[in-house]
Amino acid sequence: MSNIANKTPDVLERSLNKALHNLIEEEELDISGDIPSDVFKTLIMALYKKYGHRVVILIDEYDKPMLDHINNVTTAEANREVLRGFVAVIINSTKIYDNLTKRCCYIYTKMV
């Protein structure tokens, strides 16, 4: 998350979406959308189909969009809500989406 712009919740959401679409382009996949959580879920499934293996998800410095605004509680909390929706794809997949659960095998988070 260190390279994701997070000045406002809107900027954070657009930056997440841009990062996902950069990966989609790099992997030569055909995925569209502008809601990061939807794009993320579709990307995981597309990578699984492309490679035939579970997808490993690394989220480094996941708390940076909140810590960068520790003195502005409103922005920090709004950024947390954006990230909550994004990361919920992983968390909820283990409870709801059996197909997605089979595709995700590890989640590594690193607090700095």
Keywords:
112 residues, mainly alpha, two-stranded parallel ribbon, disordered C terminus
Please tell me how large the radius of gyration is: 14 Å
How many β-strand runs?
Answer: 2
Main sheet, how many strands, which sense, barrel?
Answer: 2 strands, parallel
Helix content estimate: 55-70%
Mean pLDDT: 81
Number of helices: 5
Short structural summary:
The protein has helices at 9-26, 36-51, 64-67, 73-93, 98-103; strands at 55-60, 104-110. The protein is mostly helical and 112 residues long.
Please characterize this protein's 3D structure.
The protein has five helices and two strands, in the order H-H-E-H-H-H-E. With 112 residues, the chain is mainly alpha-helical. The chain has one domain. The longest helix is centred in the C-terminal third of the chain and has 21 residues, at 73-93.
Topology:
Elements: H1 9-26, H2 36-51, E1 55-60, H3 64-67, H4 73-93, H5 98-103, E2 104-110
Parallel strand pairs: 1-2
Helix pairs in contact: 1-2, 2-4
